[in-house]
From TrEMBL:
Database matches in InterPro entries: DNA_methylase_N6_adenine_CS, Efm5/EEF1AKMT1, Mlase_EEF1AKMT1/ZCCHC4, SAM-dependent_MTases_sf
Signal peptide region: none
Keyword Nucleotide-binding listed: no
Compartments where located: Cytoplasm
Keyword Transferase: yes
Protein name stated in the entry: N(6)-adenine-specific DNA methyltransferase 2
Length: 211
């Protein structure tokens, strides 16, 4: 039988594949519908090859609200490799603060002038209009759990911030976070939309609402 050489998908694999395609169709349908919100978390899908893992909606909201309070009236907020916090801030549609997103993934360029291409390997390769110490708070989530990535991202954070720092990274980075940024671990436990293998925590260098 000539069909013997044709690989057959198991019924379980086939069902999973059909479910995946159905999800994709539904997402595309959402994007073309009038009610689609370009700032909703997940409107741009995670790219695991870029080590992207979006926060849960609750975590993104909590961190966004913390940033607004910390920045104060008319404050400036920088989201460094933390696009889901940026999206949640924009979703609030408020005029009493401004926010920029510094991100390696150029898909986020859809957000216009607030998008700034950022590569942590070149931590100070930033546009001239991003003046030193011009942000009331910097929220950062370095893409990789390595001291090199944290150290380079820390250079960017220290350049941008007037003082306040909100860092999100693995619990295993606590010592390095304290060393490079002077931040301490918070009681608040951030969650992701997909569970991560590594325990994740938030760190700050000011009296925050995350404790």
């Amino acid at each position: 039988d000539d069909d013997d050489d044709i690989p057959q998908l198991s019924s379980h694999t086939l069902a999973a594949l059909q479910e995946f395609y159905l999800e994709q169709q539904q997402k595309e349908g959402m994007k073309t519908s009038q009610g689609f919100n370009q700032y909703s978390v997940g409107s741009i899908e995670e790219d695991w090859q870029l080590s992207q893992f979006w926060y849960s909606d609750e975590t993104a909201s909590c961190l966004a609200n913390e940033a607004v309070v910390a920045a104060g009236e008319g404050g400036r907020i920088a989201c460094v490799s933390a696009p889901s916090v940026y999206q949640k801030l924009k979703e609030q549609d408020r005029k009493d603060f401004s926010v920029y997103i510094l991100e390696y993934d150029r898909r986020f360029a859809v957000y216009g002038e607030e998008f700034i291409f950022y590569d942590y390997n070149h931590p100070l390769n930033l546009p001239e209009n991003l003046l030193p110490h011009s942000f009331d708070i910097v929220i950062a989530d370095p893409p990789y759990l390595s001291e090199e990535c944290l150290q380079k991202t820390a250079e960017t954070i220290k350049y941008l911030t007037k003082g306040k720092i909100l860092l999100c990274t693995g619990a295993i980075m606590e010592e390095q976070a304290a060393q490079h940024l002077g931040v301490k671990i918070c009681k608040f436990i951030p969650k992701h939309s997909r569970n991560l293998a590594n325990e994740f925590r938030c760190y700050v260098n000011y009296a925050s609402g995350l404790d």
